């Protein structure tokens, strides 16, 4: 990212992190991957209590995500994720630029 992009992007990440805290997400793993000069991915993976069974290190994230995909994908769990995403979207829309 160039300097202007950093100045625009970092405040968005900070706003999203504050919104996550407002709905009870206390801890988050951050991942940044830049595949090319013009493309990157940024992930914010919430750390939930159920993930403790896999450890706290970065190596624990993949097994936790696989567990969620394979064992925590009921309709109710998908609805819960959808509701959480909607809350985050609403918070980000309600407070643009803050």
UniProtKB/TrEMBL annotation:
Top-level taxon in the UniProt lineage: Bacteria
Protein name, UniProt field: Uncharacterized protein
Organism field: Bosea lupini
